[in-house]
Design goal:
Layout (H helix, E strand, L loop, with lengths): L11 H37 L8 E4 L5 E5 L2 H12 L8 H29 L10 H6 L3 H42 L7 H12 L8 H25 L4 H18 L1 H12 L18 H10 L12 E2 L4 E4 L2 E4 L11
Antiparallel strand pairs: 1-2, 2-3, 4-5
Length: 336
């Protein structure tokens, strides 16, 4: 049954203006949060590409086993600040902020496309979509499944469009941060950095690391939706509890797909003209699958996932009460 329009309802233009304000407020908040947390992200990217400038210390695990303790992300940030100063902590921030702006524009365009398509397919007697909770309230499990698949399709399309458009600035941001390893400045500046990407890798260089990033993010969307659907349909019956399922599922899916982000950032830096992308800092990977295989053998696919209590997880041997890395040369750049 169609909704009746009351005299007190807001005009469509007022709703659009309200949406626009909310949209831009959200964008401003995201940009502010990104700026505030950029030093943490900076240190995390360097950890992901395998740069450990501070040698690990001998320690013991909770169970008393000898281990190698790596510096926390805050100690890493202190090391960056000591070498490059406070402003040095914000290397790569400009392309990240540009990427956020582009993401907002592309997401808005794709969301409007799907809404318009849904309106075109619906009749005047059908109700508008008021959210997935209301859509699924009185649906059968089969209808809920189709609703979930439709939402995954919409969200995946939106995310893939964002990734394709923003990847050049993602590449620039990561390479700006990776310059810390060799002390280069060739990727400084947005325009100059984009030109340098083309000079080093040609047109395809703008989409370095695209495949693992895209697979990781799309897999996260699919796993989150599938887990949420299964738990809310067959496990949890309480409506209040169902509200938290998606957040929990997103955390689990993000953790499972985290290695794709590590591989993606490594491929962005590989063969980039930076010291960080060549031996001895990084092997010459033939493809992202080769990179994945190498990191898997070295047990480094999860590096950067722990920021406070970090332990060296690569191959090591226990000699007496000490843990010794099989490849100690990775820690030789202590005084940079």
């Amino acid at each position: 049954m169609a909704r009746s329009k009351s005299f007190g309802s807001k005009p469509a233009s007022d709703d659009q203006n309200q949406f626009g304000k909310s949209h831009w407020h959200g964008l401003a908040f995201r940009a502010s949060l990104t700026t505030l947390t950029h030093p943490i992200e900076y240190a995390k990217v360097l950890i992901q590409i395998g740069h450990e400038p501070i040698a690990p210390k001998q320690t013991r695990t909770f169970f008393g086993k000898p281990a190698l303790a790596l510096p926390s992300v805050f100690q890493y940030i202190g090391h960056i600040k000591k070498r490059d100063g406070f402003l040095g902590l914000y290397s790569g921030l400009a392309p990240k902020l540009i990427s956020i702006g582009l993401s907002a524009v592309v997401s808005d365009k794709v969301a409007k496309y799907w809404k318009q398509k849904k309106r075109d397919q619906s009749t005047s007697d059908e109700e508008d979509d008021d959210g997935e909770e209301e859509d699924d309230a009185n649906s059968t499990p089969e209808e809920k499944l189709w609703n979930m698949l439709e939402r995954v399709l919409h969200e995946s399309t939106e995310r893939l469009a964002v990734i394709l458009v923003t990847q050049p600035f993602q590449v620039l941001a990561v390479r700006c941060m990776a310059q810390f390893v060799g002390g280069e400045t060739k990727y400084n500046g947005v325009v100059a950095g984009l030109k340098e990407i083309y000079r080093e890798n040609g047109l395809l260089g703008y989409w370095s690391g695209l495949m693992p990033r895209a697979i990781g993010e799309l897999a996260t969307i699919a796993l989150t939706a599938a887990t949420t659907f299964f738990v809310n349909t067959y496990v949890i019956q309480d409506k209040q509890m169902k509200k938290f399922t998606k957040h929990f599922a997103s955390f689990i899916a993000g953790s499972l797909c985290y290695p794709f982000h590590v591989v993606g950032n490594c491929m962005v830096v590989s063969r980039s003209g930076l010291a960080a992308g060549y031996p001895p800092y990084m092997p010459l990977h033939r493809s992202w699958l080769d990179c994945w295989s190498h990191l898997s053998r070295e047990r480094q696919l999860k590096r950067g996932s722990q920021l406070l209590f970090r332990y060296y997880t690569g191959h090591q041997v226990i000699v007496g009460d000490k843990a010794i890395p099989v490849n100690p040369t990775m820690f030789k750049r202590v005084q940079q």
